[in-house]
Design brief:
By secondary structure, this protein is mostly helical. Helix content is 86%, strand content 0%. The protein has 2 domains: 1-56, no CATH class; 58-90.
């Protein structure tokens, strides 16, 4: 993998935790939660080379696909909940 690919993976990983931490901190009104999620994302992102190199391993790819599927399922569940709340007849 190129350094640019590694950087993109690291940046995306950081962004996941930054946005997730921000959302949770707003939901629970907890700025410390946001800071900790951001710290974790940055820490993991600094290891982007090691993280990105593992994406070539088939077993790791399968695990990340499972993580992606779980994230999609969670997103769909949350979206469905809001859809149902807005339109209780659905």
């Amino acid at each position: 993998m190129t350094d640019n690919t590694n950087s993109n993976i690291g940046t995306s990983f950081i962004d996941i935790f930054d946005k997730f931490g921000s959302a949770l901190s707003e939901i629970f009104n907890d700025p410390e939660l946001k800071d900790r999620a951001r710290e974790f994302g940055h820490s993991a992102g600094r290891s982007a080379d090691a993280l990105a190199s593992r994406f070539q391993d088939d077993e790791v790819k399968a695990r990340w696909r499972a993580v992606g599927q779980a994230a999609q399922n969670f997103g769909k569940s949350v979206a469905e909940q809001f859809k149902t709340e807005k339109n209780p007849d659905l």
